[in-house]
Design a protein that fits this description.
The chain contains 6 helices and no strands. Helices cover about 70% and strands about 0% of the residues. It starts with a helix and ends in a 5-residue tail after the last helix. The protein is mainly α. Helix 1 crosses helix 6 and helix 5 packs antiparallel against helix 6.
Length: about 180
């Protein structure tokens, strides 16, 4: 089953990356101006919209929830890039550099996926998409609290681990929604 998961994961990520790279070509790396709390808030808005649509059973804006999960993945990648870029890094990154960094962070997430799937199996396959949304929102509240604590934690993982988990959960939601096909 893990081979199927890796294949579906790759299909979802390729579609997300394609969107990200095309937007980079359209807009450049304007996102470099965002501080981590602003990125977290962008992810929160997307997750909150998904939950609202799930609870109301309808939407008034045409953008579907698949696009919101893609946005969660891509904003989490932005957060990871911002975390790892040196403070004096150029605001303008080439599309090639953005794609390279994107894939680097996805490769790190695949390592995390493999480790967690070893321990948990494919438990996410039995989850509801609404539960995945709730977990993403919980991780966002955790991230916001860590940010409000100036990044300090007593026992918990930091913001990077939460961003990585949100990526994986959003990919799982998209797989369950048939986005991988």
């Amino acid at each position: 089953m893990i081979n199927q998961t890796l294949q579906e994961y790759d299909q979802v990520v390729q579609r997300c990356k394609d969107t990200f790279v095309k937007k980079t070509q359209d807009y450049g790396t304007a996102w470099r101006i965002l501080r981590l709390p602003s990125i977290t808030d962008q992810i929160f808005i997307k997750a909150q919209r998904i939950r609202s649509i799930q609870e109301k059973g309808k939407q008034l804006v045409e953008d579907d929830i698949n696009g919101e999960f893609v946005g969660i993945i891509n904003y989490c990648i932005i957060a990871l890039m911002q975390l790892h870029l040196p403070p004096d890094a150029d605001m303008n990154l080439s599309a090639q550099e953005v794609e390279r960094q994107y894939m680097h962070h996805i490769e790190e997430n695949i390592k995390l996926l493999n480790a967690k799937n070893h321990d948990y199996g494919e438990a996410w396959r039995d989850m509801r998409v609404s539960s995945i949304t709730d977990i993403i929102l919980m991780k966002l509240y955790r991230t916001k609290q860590i940010e409000d604590n100036a990044g300090q934690t007593l026992i918990s993982e930091g913001v990077e681990a939460n961003y990585r988990d949100m990526i994986n959960y959003a990919v799982f939601a998209l797989i369950k929604l048939g986005f991988a096909g």
